[in-house]
Amino acid sequence: MYQYNFEKLEIWQLSRQLVKNIYSITQHFPEEEKFGLTSQLRRAAVSISSNIAEGNGRHSNKDKARFIEMAFSSLLEVINQLILSNDLGFINNNVLIELRKEITELSNKINAFHKRLLEK
Known about the structure:
This protein has helices at 10-26, 37-56, 61-87, 93-119. By secondary structure, the protein is mainly alpha-helical.
């Protein structure tokens, strides 16, 4: 089966794993949050991988870098929403700590990828 270039990127693969983890934890959020924080978190997480994929289809490195910036912004949105989820008691400190580790790794790799794009 043909594999698109974005599928080979480690940052895209890591972002997919983050989406799976976000969907898993938000399954346990209160039902009244279905259209609130649950939806927001899921959409922000999906946006990370989507922007990486879309940016990879652009021809210029400047355009690619812009989409990588949007992916990073969505990642920051996810961490903010996870902190709020912890504040509200939807996730415990251990879950937040583990997700922060995952997010830190991904953010470092996104930043390194962005830097490489701008250096070319």
